[in-house]
Fold each of these.
Amino acid sequence: MLSNRTEAQSAARDGWVEEPATKSLNVEGDPGRAYLDPASVHRGDDGLIYFNESSNVSRPEEIGKVGLMNDAYDCAKNIKYMCVEAGDWRNDPKSTINAANDPALPVYRKFLCGDAGPAK
């Protein structure tokens, strides 16, 4: 299902995939780095790819311990949804990032969707 996972950057801790300079919902200023947990990646019945992310990491020992979020990615629309939970997160601009407007997200897109380009 997700065959190009080996091409993404890997982090120093337990194979987490690094997404440098990513945006976070709760951090103003320099957000540090975010890391995707490869063991959590799965495709939902709705076609979105779900994953756990550790965001606002400033030191390697914090990976998987700070900023834990359940996120989703829509490969067709090139949209990342943050903190997926109950509620209308798909239509909440505070939880949605259009990846075309965020230069940091191609690493995740490559890992989750198997390509590095925009949605077709």
Note: Confidence is low (pLDDT under 50) at residues 1-12.
Amino acid sequence: MDLVGINGYFHLFDDFLHHPSIESGMSVLSKDERAIVLEIADFLEAACAATPDFTRAEFIESGWPQQIAPKARDARTLFLRRGLFSEEFDESEPGQPIVVPAGR
């Protein structure tokens, strides 16, 4: 919140993740990653709706950060476990190389 402000805290998440693509399974995220990202999106949407026109201090006092934090930590762990996509070959799912039949 210190870098982007309270409104940026909510909107920056949506700026980086295209919600319709994630819901439809058309994103580069794995099934587990999609599920946890959508859970966090639901938390952020509920927090934003529950505390309209809030200040940073009011948001912190509302308890929402404490509710969001465990799921955010779980997401971070999940994404770090997967790691980065390969720079050398295409992957069908993150961490799963595409198998190309011989002779192609």
Note: The chain has a mean pLDDT of 79.
Amino acid sequence: MDAVTLIGFIVAGYAAFVTIAAVLGVVLKAPRPKWLDQVAWMLEILAIVLAIGALAAWSGGRKPESLSTFLGYLGALVCLMPLALQTMRGDRSTWSSGVIAAAALATGVVAVRVMMVR
């Protein structure tokens, strides 16, 4: 197992953790806590590390089957969470936690897809 695959598993696992934490907030009908924003940004940092690692593997000679799909997944990987957090920056309602849950779940899925297509 190479380092990029390991980082991908870490991103997917952490995305699952963030998703569960955010869904728990929705189920409990609690306002979105500030720590949920912090763990979401940590997921974004891990996603950026995965994207940099995947790009490094690509520049090192590992060619993906479809370059456009690979680059599209990398773009989605690094853009999902910041877009979700910025769209509800001032909203601390229960459903804003649902937005984080959806973005975290999508980030985890895209991380797995990056590992599959690279």
Note: The longest helix spans residues 34-59.
